[in-house]
Amino acid sequence: MEQNVQNLIVKETIEISAPITKVWEVLVTPRYIKEWDDVPEGFADDRLRMGTVLEWPGHARLTVVTFEPYQHLSLVLVAASWQPPIPDDIAYTFNLAESEGPESEGQTILTVTVGDFGRLPDGQDYYDASVEFAQTAVPKIKELAEK
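The structure assignment produced for this chain is given below.
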Protein backbone atom coordinates (compact mmCIF):
# COMPACT_ATOMS: atom_id res chain seq x y z
CA MET A 1 0.00 0.00 0.00
CA GLU A 2 1.38 3.38 -0.99
CA GLN A 3 1.45 6.06 1.65
CA ASN A 4 -0.02 9.44 0.69
CA VAL A 5 2.64 11.92 1.77
CA GLN A 6 2.05 15.62 1.34
CA ASN A 7 4.84 17.58 -0.31
CA LEU A 8 6.04 20.26 2.08
CA ILE A 9 8.46 22.31 -0.02
CA VAL A 10 9.11 26.02 0.35
CA LYS A 11 10.12 27.84 -2.84
CA GLU A 12 10.94 31.52 -3.15
CA THR A 13 12.28 33.33 -6.24
CA ILE A 14 13.57 36.89 -6.35
CA GLU A 15 15.31 39.13 -8.87
CA ILE A 16 18.42 40.82 -7.53
CA SER A 17 20.04 43.91 -9.04
CA ALA A 18 23.56 42.56 -8.67
CA PRO A 19 25.87 40.35 -10.71
CA ILE A 20 25.71 36.61 -10.10
CA THR A 21 29.25 36.69 -8.62
CA LYS A 22 28.13 39.04 -5.84
CA VAL A 23 25.02 37.00 -5.02
CA TRP A 24 27.19 33.86 -4.83
CA GLU A 25 29.52 35.59 -2.34
CA VAL A 26 26.54 36.41 -0.11
CA LEU A 27 25.52 32.73 -0.20
CA VAL A 28 28.91 31.16 0.60
CA THR A 29 30.74 33.67 2.82
CA PRO A 30 30.03 33.29 6.57
CA ARG A 31 30.28 37.02 7.30
CA TYR A 32 27.31 37.47 4.95
CA ILE A 33 25.51 34.26 5.94
CA LYS A 34 25.47 35.47 9.56
CA GLU A 35 23.28 38.35 8.42
CA TRP A 36 20.59 36.15 6.82
CA ASP A 37 20.89 32.87 8.74
CA ASP A 38 22.57 31.21 11.71
CA VAL A 39 26.17 30.03 11.63
CA PRO A 40 27.39 27.69 14.39
CA GLU A 41 29.39 29.34 17.14
CA GLY A 42 33.09 28.99 16.39
CA PHE A 43 32.60 28.26 12.67
CA ALA A 44 35.93 29.44 11.32
CA ASP A 45 35.93 28.61 7.60
CA ASP A 46 36.30 31.63 5.35
CA ARG A 47 33.66 30.30 2.95
CA LEU A 48 31.50 27.29 2.20
CA ARG A 49 32.81 24.64 -0.18
CA MET A 50 31.87 21.09 -1.19
CA GLY A 51 31.65 18.95 1.95
CA THR A 52 31.54 21.84 4.45
CA VAL A 53 29.60 20.86 7.57
CA LEU A 54 27.76 23.39 9.72
CA GLU A 55 26.83 21.67 12.97
CA TRP A 56 24.83 22.78 15.96
CA PRO A 57 25.59 19.91 18.41
CA GLY A 58 22.47 18.19 19.67
CA HIS A 59 20.27 20.19 17.29
CA ALA A 60 21.06 19.98 13.56
CA ARG A 61 23.68 19.59 10.86
CA LEU A 62 23.90 21.08 7.37
CA THR A 63 26.30 19.56 4.84
CA VAL A 64 27.19 21.11 1.48
CA VAL A 65 26.40 18.37 -1.06
CA THR A 66 26.28 20.42 -4.27
CA PHE A 67 28.67 23.25 -4.97
CA GLU A 68 28.64 24.61 -8.51
CA PRO A 69 30.05 28.16 -8.28
CA TYR A 70 27.70 30.88 -9.50
CA GLN A 71 24.98 28.31 -10.28
CA HIS A 72 23.90 25.88 -7.58
CA LEU A 73 24.43 25.39 -3.85
CA SER A 74 22.69 22.68 -1.84
CA LEU A 75 22.99 21.85 1.87
CA VAL A 76 21.36 18.71 3.25
CA LEU A 77 19.67 19.12 6.63
CA VAL A 78 19.62 16.46 9.34
CA ALA A 79 18.03 17.28 12.70
CA ALA A 80 19.19 15.46 15.84
CA SER A 81 15.56 14.76 16.79
CA TRP A 82 14.69 12.87 13.60
CA GLN A 83 14.00 9.17 14.03
CA PRO A 84 15.19 6.49 11.58
CA PRO A 85 14.87 6.12 8.75
CA ILE A 86 16.39 9.57 8.48
CA PRO A 87 15.84 11.25 5.10
CA ASP A 88 19.09 12.24 3.42
CA ASP A 89 17.58 14.54 0.80
CA ILE A 90 15.91 17.34 2.77
CA ALA A 91 17.89 20.35 1.70
CA TYR A 92 18.30 24.08 1.42
CA THR A 93 18.95 24.68 -2.27
CA PHE A 94 20.01 27.94 -3.90
CA ASN A 95 19.87 28.24 -7.70
CA LEU A 96 21.29 31.25 -9.53
CA ALA A 97 20.63 32.36 -13.09
CA GLU A 98 21.30 35.52 -15.02
CA SER A 99 18.18 37.45 -15.91
CA GLU A 100 17.33 37.48 -19.57
CA GLY A 101 16.23 40.43 -21.62
CA PRO A 102 17.63 43.68 -22.99
CA GLU A 103 17.68 45.51 -19.64
CA SER A 104 18.71 42.64 -17.43
CA GLU A 105 22.51 43.01 -17.48
CA GLY A 106 23.84 42.63 -13.96
CA GLN A 107 20.54 41.12 -12.78
CA THR A 108 20.41 37.74 -11.05
CA ILE A 109 17.47 35.42 -10.41
CA LEU A 110 17.79 33.57 -7.10
CA THR A 111 15.52 30.63 -6.34
CA VAL A 112 15.61 29.18 -2.84
CA THR A 113 13.98 25.80 -2.22
CA VAL A 114 13.71 24.17 1.21
CA GLY A 115 12.34 20.70 1.92
CA ASP A 116 10.67 18.30 1.30
CA PHE A 117 9.48 17.88 4.89
CA GLY A 118 6.49 15.76 3.90
CA ARG A 119 8.01 12.49 5.10
CA LEU A 120 8.63 13.72 8.64
CA PRO A 121 6.07 13.19 11.41
CA ASP A 122 6.46 16.87 12.40
CA GLY A 123 7.04 18.01 8.82
CA GLN A 124 4.44 20.76 8.99
CA ASP A 125 6.41 22.44 11.80
CA TYR A 126 9.62 22.35 9.74
CA TYR A 127 7.72 23.61 6.70
CA ASP A 128 6.23 26.52 8.67
CA ALA A 129 9.67 27.46 10.05
CA SER A 130 11.10 27.28 6.53
CA VAL A 131 8.41 29.59 5.17
CA GLU A 132 9.42 32.11 7.84
CA PHE A 133 13.11 31.56 6.95
CA ALA A 134 12.46 32.23 3.26
CA GLN A 135 10.39 35.34 3.97
CA THR A 136 13.22 36.89 5.98
CA ALA A 137 16.40 35.42 4.44
CA VAL A 138 15.64 35.93 0.74
CA PRO A 139 15.03 39.71 0.98
CA LYS A 140 18.13 40.01 3.22
CA ILE A 141 20.26 38.16 0.64
CA LYS A 142 18.95 40.60 -2.00
CA GLU A 143 19.76 43.59 0.22
CA LEU A 144 23.31 42.38 0.95
CA ALA A 145 24.03 41.59 -2.71
CA GLU A 146 22.77 44.97 -3.89
CA LYS A 147 24.98 46.96 -1.48
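Interim note for the steering committee: Residues 10-121 form a domain with the Alpha-D-Glucose-1,6-Bisphosphate; Chain A, domain 4 fold (CATH 3.30.530.20). The mean pLDDT is 91.
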